[in-house]
Amino acid sequence: MTKRYGMVIDLSTCVGCQACVASCTTQNQTPYWDGKFRTRVDDIVTGSFPDLSRTFVSQLCNHCEDAPCVQVCPTGATYQTEEGVVLVDQEQCVSCQACVAACQYGARYVYTPEDVVQAKSVYGEGNRHSVAHVDKCTLCYDRVTGEGMEPACVTTCPGQARIFGDWNDPESRVNKALAAAGDRAHRAPGSAIAYILPAPSQKELPPPDPADPLWVSGWKGYVQPAAKAALGAAVGVLAVATAVNLSQKKAGEGDHDDE
Amino acid sequence: MMTSKPKGKVFRFGLGYRLAHWNNAIFFLLLLLSGLMFVFKGVSGLLGEAGVVWADRIHRAAAWPYTFLTIPLLAFMAGKETKEWLKHVFTWTKDDIAFVAAFPKALFNRNYPLPAQDKFNGGEKINSMLTIFGTVVMIVTGWTMALSQYLGPQVMAWALPIHDVTAILLGAVIMGHMWLSLVHPDNKAAMPGMVNGYVDEHFAKHHYAKWYKAMKDERSAEAAD
Amino acid sequence: MSNKSFSRRTFLKAAAVTGASLSVLGVAEVAPRHAEGNEPASEYEWIPNICTMCVNTCGIKVKVKKTGNLTRAVKIEGNPDHPYSKGKLCARGQAGLRRVYDPERITQPLIRVEGSKRGEWKFRPATWEEAYGYIAQKLQAEQIMPYEMAAAGGWISCAFYRPYLMSFAFAMEIPNILATPMQHCVMGEHLGLDSAVGTFNVHDEIVADYDKAKYYIAMGANAAVGGIATGRAVRYAEGKKAGSKTVVLDPRMSEMAAKADEWIPIKPGTDVAFALAMMNVILQKKLYDVEFLTKHSNMPFLVTEQGGMVMPLMESGGAMGMPKAFYVYDELSQSIKQIPGFPANNNLVDIEGNPVKPALEAPAGLQQNGAGVTTLFQVVLKQAAQYTPAWAASITDVPAETIERIATEFGSTRPALIEPGWHDARYSSTTQFRKVSALIQGLVGGIDRPGGWVFIGGVREVMHNFLEMMKQGQMPSSPLQLPGLFSPKAALDMKFNNPQAWSHGHPSVNQAWNQQEWANGRAGVGFNLYTDVGYDEAIKGELSYDGKPYQLKAFFLSQTNLIRGFFGWKEMLTNPNVKLVVSIEIGPSDSIAYSDVILPDTAYLEKYDPFFEVGMSHDLGYTTRIPVIQPPGQVKHTIDMFYEMAAGFQKDLLTPMAGMFGWNPAELKHEVEVAVGEGKGAVYGIQQYQAHTIAHHAHTTPEKVMESIRAKGLIEVEHRDELMAKWSMPYQQPLSTPSGRFEFYSLFLANIVQQTGIPTLEGNPLFTFVPNEFKPGMKPGDALTEKDEFFFTYGKVPTQSHAATMNNDLLTAISEKHKDAYYGVWLNTQRATALGISTGDRIVLTNTTSGQKAEGTAFVTEMIRPDTIFVPAAFGGEDPNMKQAYGKGTPFSNLVPRRHEHSVGNFRASEFTVKIAKA
Known about the structure:
The structure holds three protein chains of three kinds.
Chain A: E1 5-10, H1 19-28, E2 40-48, E3 51-59, H2 68-72, E4 78-80, E5 86-88, H3 98-102, E6 108-111, H4 113-123, E7 133-136, H5 141-146, H6 152-156, E8 162-166, H7 173-180, E9 185-186, E10 193-196, H8 214-247
Parallel strand pairs in A: 1-10
Antiparallel strand pairs in A: 1-8, 2-3, 4-5, 6-7, 9-10
Chain B: E1 9-11, H1 15-39, H2 41-68, H3 70-77, H4 79-89, H5 94-107, H6 122-146, H7 148-151, H8 156-182, H9 191-195, E2 198-200, H10 201-207, H11 209-224
Antiparallel strand pairs in B: 1-2
Helix pairs in contact in B: 1-2, 1-3, 2-6, 3-4, 6-8, 10-11
Chain C: H1 5-23, E1 44-50, E2 59-67, E3 70-78, H2 91-94, H3 96-100, E4 110-112, E5 123-125, H4 128-141, E6 149-153, H5 155-172, E7 177-179, H6 182-186, H7 191-197, H8 202-205, E8 206-208, E9 215-219, H9 230-241, E10 245-249, H10 255-259, E11 262-264, H11 271-284, H12 290-296, E12 302-306, E13 309-312, E14 314-315, E15 325-330, E16 335-340, E17 367-368, E18 371-372, E19 374-375, H13 376-385, H14 389-396, H15 400-412, E20 416-418, H16 430-443, E21 453-455, H17 457-471, H18 486-496, H19 509-519, H20 535-540, E22 544-545, E23 548-549, E24 554-558, H21 562-565, H22 569-574, E25 580-585, E26 597-600, E27 612-613, E28 620-623, H23 638-648, H24 654-661, H25 665-677, H26 682-697, H27 702-712, E29 714-718, H28 720-727, H29 747-756, E30 789-795, H30 803-806, H31 809-816, H32 819-823, E31 825-828, H33 829-834, E32 842-847, E33 853-861, E34 868-872, E35 913-918
């Protein structure tokens, strides 16, 4: 069975230390000097003194099953691996940012040409980012598949709040952790990232469930197929017309016409 | 001006007008082909990595002449003709409507009678209008996307779908246009008009009867002078 | 996940072929991809090291990329073999590469330009010879005597190089050592706690068993877990996953409070009252561990009480000047019995070897030598009776029912854990507060037991070795070989406060100042080891010893940020009486701008090091460093600088060093000379020498030791379970208290009070409430009434905490994302609104007592008590050379007056109020 990589984030043990952010940055050599990170830890405060709750909510790319960013990418640079990991092919990406607009998690940003120059001085020659492109969480795909290590944010997490695994394996840590969390477990359909809530009632804490923005669903669902159908119809009509016209004899020298 | 007219030919399009047409045609085609991968994702696989990079470069490069050359050519090299063309395109007669109504049948029947047309027939007028509006849409949305780094990613939410769908529709339009000028047995004669400016008198008479007649009348009037 | 990259590529190739054929149909395909440069793993190597971004000394592994002769560190990970940090690493540790590759690194010696002033940052590059020459010439020209010098070490010295800094000082005959974080943390916070359990540096000697505790109370301690101490946070999270309950007392909703099941926004500086009331409830409800108190504490000891002074009955003349015997009331014989003093660790046998069943409560009217005696337990009961929850409620602003409930829950849950604490030089009450915390932990028997305060491996071993020496009638050759609290006490009494121990006949400035204070009828500072008390006077020329002026004229600063971490030092270092300031540093800091000479130090990834105990680990093992990358420019190892400077003065660094550790001086010297001859530096020779001693210790060869270091970053000697089974304290070995027992009445503090005459308030050997004086005349429980007046608190944020993290561009970038909370001055919404202040407004903070001012940016939040403000402490850089740190946050040290509390010279750094106004 193919793998479906994903993560469980235990909000009850995330201490808000930002280790995941720093580890991700150095692992993936991202342009922190521009304030751009592939993951972040939101600091959510509700209530008023002294009846307060403060929760640290780790956020990253959700690696949605039918990801809008993949749908809208005009060049196909954004793609999904067989393990469900949404990746960007740096060479094919033209930095158009359609995916950035389509992502409701704020998980994408542009690694600009200026960032590429800066990366050389910060991370050294031969770093991972040689051309401008849209950048995002890869669930440390190379590290996981190439080095056999867990994602950088997971390995380092002092609170062990980030748990990595294969959703398709019932024995995987993600499935076990979520099962053990009982009614505190929260995994939206189509989502690779699940959360363990501090309390069952705190359902507003995790990021929203995966959904296509209206412009994506309208465009990709209806308008573009219709336009493609129209184009296809035109091709069909012309093909038939070619056949008909070439097989027909012109009625004498008489008038007829066309444009 | 008309003195050097080749025998049996009718002058149809001036140099500036032709240049504008070909500028638009060539760069539109380049944009269309280089943009194909943006609409049909399978194409990028065929192109390979270098192909995608080159297609993207071509697309971005072709946008410049496509955007900035056609209008000056039309305005400064073919002002009078452009005005005439625009006037024709946006003036619709009963004959134009009748032409459009009859066209689908004529497409499958070389002998289907069509009403007499002026310099531009109803179909050409539709083609022109779609091209004019389509080009404006493509230019606006295209440059919006090109500048999305400065305008912010949210502009992509409208610019990309509109660009994408308009491109597909314009693709359909240009296919019809090219089919008629390159494939259709009775219409291929129109092509020289865009190449050297002249069409067969016979072709003109049959395809643009009203225009031909008006031209003849004018010529007669000149001769009478 | 064991897929090799090869299989992925194969897959991609296949996908590309099918993708291409399908693409014609418009089916989404997978082309050969360049998601990210995925270079083959063979070009990389993982080399272990020790993190030095903060004091936790977590284990790390560094991924190194080798291209030809060039090596570059590309990633840091936690070392999974490290028993403290268990493979985890915080943001600061992760950002270590930006410390090493800091574009602002200092890579060659710098000398302050003639005619410029300290603090202006006008330096010229120099060679090492020039720099050393400048120092020698200055010392000579100004005729500076060794006792007119001070050597100051920062937290890196504390964590790694304290013995080497001391060796340098001893070689140079410098009696003045100023060590960070003695006044902040080691003693400034913990003297009271140490006096009960016998530790010296509690963070290094006890790691609480957060993972096994079922109930955990953190008081004044965001830094311990949330702040963040990785190895502690790892254990805390494990405990939380296992369902333990957390109660956090903090005036603000800190990271730690955010994790709490119950957050109690206590009034600042009143934790001591809360803790005393907890003690009261636990005693009243008899929730204490009778067996522990009876067997292993001094609770059953018989005491007399005269004029409010408690005095245990004891016989003097024991080992090392400690009492030989104590008295208990034996329930078996219904009589008073003598039980042996240190190294005895329990109360079950009398001095004749007969079994004893000590009574916690003596029969009424019991007398010894004509004086009425009771047990210490009875005194404790009586003393604690006054600290009722209702009393504490009026001071702490916590309802009495809450205090009573928490205390009851804590006392009736086993194992229950109270936070030992971390950095708390905030109040006059600190010593007593942390002492009471320790006493609560002792009441529930949570000492060196799973779920309680568990000693690290090295503490047990030092105690074991010490006991072995005692058996053979030997005495340790240096304070370093003494366990726990005995070590600093011996260092004080035998060396720093002892003029005879120095050829020049001068004790430390600290001690000279004490004597001057006593002569003027004032209290000095009781435990003054490694503090800066008296330095101000010594610089100004206001200190004399033996009738002659005792001045401080030259400073050797080793990675210490005196300007930010201490108080009043800007003025002190710019005083014209100071003739020479030498700084050893890695990058710009607020303090080194005040130097005359800056010597560039190696960073942690670039050096060989001596061996250290595996830090903060319950296991026993050793670790060291081997270079991961080449050092930049002309940087040198601190120890090599000490070696070279000492040699320049014809002094020998190695003899005092060997003496301190009990090493063979000739063998050490040989190894060092070989290493220096090979150009590898003295430190490499020390490492080589130690590889042998450690191999001997671990029953292996030096080669195997180094092999293990290269592979795992450490060599294990023994595991926690084995150690706890044979050397648990005080169950199998004594604690390093004067009685060997857990001391509710501290003989150590009693001795200090007696020796130094400090007030028994701060240094009370039993326990007492210490009212903090937030401003003149203000009483405990008084509320602030002015519209713009607040209690002042400060603390840590998780991303930036030390000089090593302050100017780090990656950490700054992360902090920027949380800049309101991380840089801002926390102000309660209601109060801020009344003052017309919103988040982002620039505000001025004014100390209402001293008038000192500092600026900051408001963070208006519900997460803090209305009567309190909070300032993140690690910010406020004032040197523009720190491109990242400059101008961010509030330089809170500018608000704190230079003053010291009496027991340990802690700074009372929050014991004042501030007024807030828009800038």
